[in-house]
# Entry
Amino acid sequence: MPESKLDLLQGTLDVMVLQTLAAMGSLHGYGIARRIEQVSGDAVLLNQGTIYASLVRLQQKGWISAEWGTSDNNRKAKFYSITKRGRRQLSEDAAYWHRLAGVMRRVLALGIEGDGK
Amino acid sequence: MDRLRQAIQRLLAPLRASKYERELDAEIATHLAFAIEENIKRGLPPAEARRQAMVQFGGAQQSREKYRDSRSFSLLEEILQDLRFTWRTLLKDYSFTIIALVILALAIGANTAVFSVVNTLLLRPLPFPDSHELVWIAPPPSTCGLSCATYSADAYEEFRDQSFAYQGVTGYGAFSTPDNLRLTGYGEPQPATSIEVIGNFFQVLGVQPAKGRLFTDEEARGGPHNVALLSDVYWRRQFNADPNIVGKSIELSGSLVTVVGVLPSSFDFGAVFSPGAKVDLFSPLDLNQQRMWGNIVTLVGRLKPGVATAQALQDAERIAPNMYFNVKYPQTLGRYKGALIPVPLKDYVTGKLRHSLIALWCAVGAILLIAGVNLSNLLLARAAARGKEFALRGALGANRGRILRQLLLESLVLSGAGAVLGLALAVTLIAWLAHQGSVALPLLSTLHVDLQALVWTAFVAFVTAMVFGLLPGLRTAGGNVVEVLKDSGPGAGLGRKHERLRSTLVVSEVALACMLLVSAGLLLRSFMKVLDVDLGFEPDRAASIKVEYDDSAPTEEGSQTKRGVIFQEVLERVSAVPGVEAAGMADYLPLGPNRSWDTPVPQGKTFDPGQVPEPLVYIVTPGFFRAMGIRLHGRDFAWSDGPRSERVVVINESAARVYWPGEDAVNKVLMRGKEEVRVIGVAEDVHEEHVEAALGSQVYYPVTQQGPNGAQLVVRSKIQPSALAGSILRTLREVNPKQPAAEFRPIRMLVDRAVSPRRFFMLLVAAFAALGLLLAALGIYGVISYAVARQTREFGIRMVLGATPALVRRTVLGSTLRLAGIGIALGVVASLICAQVISSLLFQTPPRDPTAFAAAIAVLIAVATVAGYLPALRATRIHPAAALRCD
# Structure
């Protein structure tokens, strides 16, 4: 249901793209978008088009590289892959998200306890 | 790091925009193809598969926008977009564009050219390394000319050895005349100009030879070395830039001289030390040989690092009392007291021009203002016409900043293009100026448009665009949308406000033009006064040529006799040439270098030491006064005034007044030491130094009783003197086959050269005034035309109601003259101040000269009338019916 889909937080899409590329190797834009949707169990509200803004941003930062190539079904597509610097950035981002998620879980748990009293 | 990288990529992105767009389109297409394929695989019909793919992708246009936002700074792209738009609008409105460009090109070109001149003459240091250390050592100019600004060989050595302030002191022989040598061995004998310099001259200035070497210490000490350094120009012109010239011997006036080096092209002696003169070669000055010749060298010094001019002055004041004019004569001790004054070389070279240059700079500044005001006016007119376009754009969502930016961009593009054209104009003008050898301004030959001038041009263009583009821009963008859109016809709302602003601009334009005109008028009047100065001789229909002769004889008397015979023969033959009215010779001509080396005193009178007049001395032949057109009271010299007859002298009126105030000097006796000299005539005062300078004492001795320093033949003719050049040279060659093909110079040229700096500045200011007037006229014309166009309907109605065309014309002309009148009134007030400021540049013209003011006002009124009459005429040609129908 579209209503229940998660709105993406600023900056999360970039991390998702990096993680997808780190896990899957070289992928084209459609592949990345589909992959994110599948992993999230279609829980994320993703306008597939917005992925390209993220891709150009990451490319300009030098975290991913792009190359024109041919897909399995013989279509010309631009394939993206993560760079060394991208991996370093991803590990930093991952650590940040883990910490944030941990903190959020604890904070929210606190709220429930508070409600309980 | 990554941030920086991204920023750079984003900055570059607009340049590659189309490539990015194409790639994105391809990617989106592939993306959709993948999605459709997958949907079809899942069993959807093709149309539905496509629809689903599109839905999943989201808005393609939106994602493009997002993509662009992250790819680059959108501001840059917007500006590029605006730029393209500006380009199109300017091309479309080409008549406006052309007028604006011409105005800007003229104003910016004039500014760049004048900046280059000011920069070269005033701002930039002299073309020597550490040139701030260089000083010129001489007292301020006085009536005894160059001789009071020069020093004897002994004095030079004493000063050099006793001063502490200098790394080096040097100088050059100040009294050489043009064409003083004869080069043989290269076809016909050619005249050449050489200057003798003290051996260390180039070392002190810091000039390195382009080829070969400078003078050695041995050569610098003097003696018969016969070596020379060539100037770059002479080496190229006379020796075809012979790469093997160093070490070659050339024959100069009969002796062989070895070329030891060639000076660099950056060194132009004339440009710095003797404006308007060309020097071909340099030889070492033999101080020992010239020790008895009195004041012969100028002094130039290089101060030790960190020594200020004031300290150098103290140093000089300490030494001066201990200096001898000639160490052999103890009574000459202290002759130079107070006469050794070091001033920065730069001040000596260009200090006199400071005021003129600043005035010139202000004049082009005024031109720029007028041009800017005109541009502003044009832009306002355009803005009025485009008011609706902007209102519409505003209504459609363009914000005020964007519209303002667009307007500013337009004026930037205009002024940028104007600057490029102006630069081309300036480069042409400067190249032309640099080759004006006849203008006696220092450093003129070194003029060029350099990087600083480019930066200045860019600055001027930018400021012009900002200031004069912003004004109409603010006006337009600030307008109320509804009001503008409502303001359907000419004659309401914004139009009226614009008109007030435009009138203010025109008034200021007229005021500025008035200032320029008055200044130009004052300078023109001064120049005419200078031309009117009674020079003491008749420069027209006379010309001079340097004559070669050989008067060598074992005794002085023998040489005087021999010289008399040669000169008499030359003059007799030259006088016989058809067309020649009179001929005579002198060692120096007026308005050039001159010498004073003699201090005669009237018999029976004594002067306090230091009060003895030091007249300029000329050694002349009979006939010289007639040939120069100098009026004489008493008698001229005769050939019979020989070595053995009574010593005779002619003095000028100033000298007569000093020696025998209130008496007739003819037949009085002057004492030169123990020798009696009879005054046989009193000559009119001749302007020797400068056309505008005060006059001093002058004395003339005959060639048969004194030794002249060379001979200049002066010929007065009935016809144009240049027509005689060939026959005079032929006649001289008959007497002396070695006579070189020296230049036959009209005497008028000497005067022209002397007044050339004044003429130069006057012409420039006059040109700027004319330009200012033209621009102001354009401004008036533009405003009145616009007003007439706006009032078309009103005039139509008036004429229907019975107004005669004459009445309508009067109305239009009246409003024109009202604007001009206010402008002139303001301009006259400003001119009064301005004239006071430039009063030091005027010659015998009061700063409130009524003629200059009246002429400026009359010209402005006349121009305003014409500029207003044309639109007035148009107003009356309107057919009432057409006027009423007009929108």
Remarks:
- Chain A has four helices and three strands.
